[in-house]
């Protein structure tokens, strides 16, 4: 259960938007966001959104219903809604429980904008002298709010929790893509992300920052 997202409290009557702000929802979340997860269906594996659920009466479109587009596939039981302007998924009527809506848990109207630090979590799967790596796992084995870096994130901080303290141990550097790099898409399960390991360069870093100004 989540009571806040990115430092923003989850309200009992919670507002959420698409990316461009054309569509705005009001969600009934009296207990916070219950059971956030990554769905493993074919469409959710591709969009990578963290979702949670409410009853059908727990979502109201308060702005921009004319911008919502509907996508259906296969049995057409699930109804996926997205903004026709920016393309962001907002919510869907669930196939496994048609009495509920799933909603995109990451589009808070009061949340941090793109100039502020975003956080995601993962587990280190391999470590070497100069770098360490992690895999973006499928929902069945993923951490809550598991994520990975994307294009443009190089140089971003990688922190490890030691007891109750978060320690800077690396910088985002590169990823390994299986198969044809021209056909890959960001955010797919199984992608490997690697970070420069700062401990390998600590003597050089300390030498540079200890030099007198103008040296």
TrEMBL record:
Record keywords: Metal-binding, Zinc
SUPFAM superfamilies the record matches: Mss4-like, Trypsin-like serine proteases
Entry-linked InterPro entries: CENP-V-like, CENP-V/GFA, Mss4-like_sf, Peptidase_S1_PA, Peptidase_S1_PA_chymotrypsin
UniProt xrefs under Pfam families: GFA
Gene Ontology MF annotations: carbon-sulfur lyase activity; metal ion binding
Gene3D superfamilies: 2.170.150.70, Trypsin-like serine proteases (2.40.10.10)
Domain CENP-V/GFA: 14-132
Similarity comment: Belongs to the Gfa family.
Protein name, entry field: CENP-V/GFA domain-containing protein
């Amino acid at each position: 259960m989540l009571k806040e997202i990115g430092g923003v409290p989850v309200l009992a009557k919670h507002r959420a938007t698409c990316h461009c702000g054309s569509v705005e929802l009001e969600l009934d979340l009296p207990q916070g966001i219950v059971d956030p997860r990554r769905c493993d269906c074919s469409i959710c594996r591709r969009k990578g959104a963290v979702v949670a659920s409410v009853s059908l009466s727990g979502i109201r479109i308060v702005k921009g219903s004319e911008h919502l587009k509907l996508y259906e596939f296969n049995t057409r039981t699930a109804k996926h809604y997205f903004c026709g302007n920016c393309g962001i998924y907002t919510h869907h009527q669930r196939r496994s429980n048609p009495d509920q809506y799933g909603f995109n848990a990451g589009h808070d109207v009061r949340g941090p904008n793109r100039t502020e630090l975003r956080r995601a979590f993962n587990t280190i799967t391999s470590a070497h002298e100069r770098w360490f790596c992690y895999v973006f796992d499928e929902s069945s084995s993923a951490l809550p709010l598991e994520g990975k870096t994307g294009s443009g994130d190089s140089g971003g901080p990688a922190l490890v929790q030691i007891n109750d303290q978060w320690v800077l141990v690396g910088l985002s550097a590169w990823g390994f893509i299986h198969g044809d790099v021209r056909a890959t898409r960001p955010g797919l399960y199984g992608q490997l992300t690697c970070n420069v390991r700062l401990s390998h360069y600590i003597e050089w870093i300390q030498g540079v920052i200890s030099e007198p100004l103008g040296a």
